[in-house]
């Protein structure tokens, strides 16, 4: 019998080309490569964002017993706090080798920290060497800001020097900002009889303040580094973290170290002879001469 030929099937239609798949794969590969480059260059800051986000999401579960290890190589550790930290158990804080604390008292020309009085009283009662700080607003008069701080802070012999926190970038004229900062520092020094400490972060300090306030001690904030980039001769306190945990405080708090011994820190305290005796009058805005330098009011005297 003759062989029967198999039926011939019609050819399959060609597969439709999908060029978009190739472009999607290329886009994904490029995204991964760019993401890797960005992470490599900014990994410290990105890691900080992730940690802060995680801390925010888990804050409701904190107990106030969390503890960050103390920074190795330093013997004198301290914190700085404001109303943001809420109610603080200061005796518990003192039991965990916190030797000093700076407490926010005021900000700008009118703002008072709501928890300053309580924190000031309880930190000192717990035996923690204490000081107070003012958050500087560069668009407000330095003399008025100094008056606000002086009216709020009853620094006495044995307390740490006053601190001016300068880091806000909302200003138009850097020379004018520096004049207002110096106005605050000089008025407060005249009142308490001790040079104030200037606080700033590394980037702001290098750009706007370096070389202009070398006659005042520097408290430097510089994170994610093994040690500050500035030479040790230029700073006395290093704020090495703004996301630490100390038992007695529910949530994050700034961690600091003093460069030196506890006795050296005590040597910075307000001297007994400088205890003010009278509340200063509210300074008036001085007329600005052609040099733009304000005249400093006469020496102020005590907080009520």
SSE layout and pairing:
Blueprint: H1 19-58, E1 77-81, H2 90-94, E2 98-107, E3 111-112, H3 116-125, E4 129-135, H4 142-152, E5 163-165, H5 174-192, E6 197-201, H6 202-209, E7 218-221, E8 237-244, E9 253-258, H7 262-266
Parallel strand pairs: 1-2, 2-4, 4-5, 5-6, 6-7, 7-8
Antiparallel strand pairs: 1-9, 2-3, 8-9
Helix pairs in contact: 4-5
Indicate how many domains the architecture comprises. Answer: 1
Computed structural class? alpha/beta
- Strand/helix succession: HEHEEHEHEHEHEEEH
CATH topology: TIM Barrel
How many strands appear in the DSSP assignment? 9
**Percent range for helical residues?**
25-40%
Radius of gyration (Å): 29 Å
Major beta sheet, strand line-up: 1-2-4-5-6-7-8-9
Overall body shape = elongated
CATH superfamily: Glycosidases
């Amino acid at each position: 019998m003759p062989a029967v030929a198999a039926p011939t099937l019609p050819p399959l239609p060609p597969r439709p080309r999908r060029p978009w798949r190739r472009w999607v794969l290329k886009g994904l590969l490029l995204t991964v490569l760019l993401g890797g480059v960005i992470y490599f260059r900014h990994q410290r800051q990105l890691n900080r964002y992730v940690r802060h986000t995680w801390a925010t999401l888990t804050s409701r579960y904190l107990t106030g017993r969390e503890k960050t290890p103390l920074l190795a190589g330093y013997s004198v550790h301290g914190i700085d706090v404001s109303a943001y930290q809420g109610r603080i158990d200061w005796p518990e804080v003192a039991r965990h080798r916190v030797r000093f604390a700076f407490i926010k008292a005021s900000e700008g020309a009118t703002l008072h920290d709501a928890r300053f009085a309580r924190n000031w009283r309880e930190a000192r009662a717990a035996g923690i060497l204490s000081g107070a700080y003012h958050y500087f607003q560069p668009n407000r008069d330095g003399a008025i800001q100094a008056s606000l701080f002086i009216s709020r802070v009853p620094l006495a012999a044995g307390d740490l020097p006053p601190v001016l926190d300068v880091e806000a970038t909302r200003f138009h004229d850097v020379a004018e900002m520096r004049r207002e900062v110096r106005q605050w520092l000089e008025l407060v020094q005249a009142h308490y009889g001790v040079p104030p400490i200037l606080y700033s972060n590394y980037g702001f300090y290098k750009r706007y303040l370096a070389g202009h306030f070398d006659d005042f001690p520097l408290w430097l904030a510089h994170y994610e580094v093994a040690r500050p980039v500035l030479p040790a001769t230029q700073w006395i306190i290093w704020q090495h973290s703004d996301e630490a945990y100390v038992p007695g405080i529910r949530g994050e708090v700034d961690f600091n170290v003093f460069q030196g011994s506890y006795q050296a820190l005590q040597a910075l305290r307000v001297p007994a002879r400088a205890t003010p005796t009278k509340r200063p009058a509210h300074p008036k805005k001085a007329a600005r001469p052609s040099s733009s330098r304000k005249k400093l009011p006469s020496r102020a005297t005590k907080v009520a």
